[in-house]
Each structure stands twice: as structure tokens, then as C-alpha cells.
């Protein structure tokens, strides 16, 4: 299970760029499973010759994209778009999501999906669901998921957290900050109800921004941070924090996806209020059925290896939204770009 294995460092190493505006530390560029500077990757999806994006697109060997950071409209640290606003998406036929009585819509099942957290671009033909960083513009005419790093601090934003919310950074018994060594990210402390309330006040503004910008759902990354917390955080605390974030999302009319964390039980997933799952490499690690047991066909599967992608398509290709992406999750047109759907 995911809790017992070291997470793959998805994304190329990149130097963090920090811009200080009005005394606020701001910084990150989106790439990788979350951003391209979150650690060196051990492997990457095998690229082939680049073609015009359609149902299947691959590319030549990867290069490290550059990062650019500009101040965001928020007073909290934020990721900066790595691309300009793309041209309007090509017209596609979108499967209509089922509207809940509460007023938010989970993404349609078995839909064409693209993972664009490394940079926004016009979705390939047939794509009707897109996930982008919260600072990117939603894609036109499709269902949009807003990526939020809710459980750990962004690289480059450490000074902001230390200056504004030092009490919300996880510390060990000696008072040293706890760092996720896989991604070189400071870990957020959601161990008490008071800290969770304070964190929701910060991250909740990001969720509000997702709704205001026109996104349809959120995916809150690093739900599983408690597994890397040196025993200082628990799953129960993570579920309590996720519940508060999901309530904020639902109050904004946004659905919320469980990001990875296959070890989370169906009971806890439902308790937290998740509506669907975004699962990376679930076929690679034989975990897809864990997510389908909870969410049925409301699972988005992202594979980074050809073998994992082939397994996912063979077992779930007629049921789930499945995509093969390069580990940089790079934008179309870059040398590292890989995209293929079942």
C-alpha cells in the first residue's frame, strides 16, 4: 500500500524562485505531480516522437522547464502560472456530470481527462475534464479541477509561513521544523482543532479563489502527509482537516477529490466528504480497485509509466478516466510532453 512505500519524486529538479511583494513571500511554478522543482525524479515515462495532440501524444526526451514567478492577487503564497492563457479549447462533447442535491457536480465518469498542473494549454481533442493549478485559468468548455497543495507548504513560501503563521508549521519535539524529505516541503501542522481552523482560514481563501475563477472542483494534495510526519500527525487529524476543507469547497459549489492515499478507508473517505478520487499510479501499484470500492467509476487515474498505463486501460479503460502523462506533467509543445488516453 502507498503508506509503506516511498513516494516517487514526480517532477524534475528546479531552483525555487521567490518574489517578495509587500513583504509577502511568494513562489512556485507548477510542474511534476505537483511542481517540477519538488525533487529529482528516479524515472520518467518513455517518450517517443512528438505529434499533434489527439488521443495519443508522446514526445522526445525531457528537458527541465524554466520557472517564473510573479506576485499573485492573494496575500497568501501561491503558485504562478507557467504558461500564458491558452487558446480556447476545441469544441468537444462533454458528458454531463450528475448534479447533487447539495449543488456541486463531481466530474463525469469515464471522460477524456488531461492533467495540466505543469502548465495550461488547449486540451487535446476528446478531453472534457482538466485539472490545473489554482493560479491557472480554467479551460473553456470543459469540467475544471483546481489543484491546491493544502497539507504542505510550497517551496519558496517558507519565509511567508514562518513570518505569518509559524505556529502552523509542524515541529518536532526539539522545536525543529519537520520537512517532507521526498519533496523538500515544510509540513503543515493540523494536529489540533485550533490549528485546523487557522489553516482553513488560509487555504480556504485559495478554495474561494478556485470557485471565483470558475473551477468546478478541487483536489487537495498531500492528504497523506501524516504518513511522513515522524508520527506527529495522524490519519484522524488529516480526515478532520480534509472534512473542513471539503465543507469549504462544497459551500462554494465545488466538488472535492481525494488525492491518492489509498490507505484511507471508505468510511473515512465518506466521513471527510470526498466526491471522487484523483489517483496517481494506481495501476502501477495495484490500488485502482481500492478507489473504485469507494467511488465506483468516479475515479481519475494518472499513470506515468507505459506498463502502468497499459494495466489501467486493460482493467478499467471502459469505466474510469485514465491518462498517461510525463512525470513533469509538462505543457504541450515542450520536449518532455507525453499524453495518451485509453
UniProtKB/TrEMBL annotation:
Family matches, as InterPro entries: Aldolase_TIM, GH, GH114_TIM-barrel
Chain segments carrying region Disordered: 44-107
Pfam family, one: Glyco_hydro_114
UniProt feature, compositional bias: Low complexity: 45-102
Residues in Glycoside-hydrolase family GH114 TIM-barrel domain copies: 113-330
Domain of life: Bacteria
PANTHER family recorded: ALPHA-1,4 POLYGALACTOSAMINIDASE, PUTATIVE (AFU_ORTHOLOGUE AFUA_3G07890)-RELATED (PTHR35273), ALPHA-GALACTOSIDASE (PTHR35273:SF2)
UniProt protein name: Glycoside-hydrolase family GH114 TIM-barrel domain-containing protein
Organism: Actinoplanes derwentensis
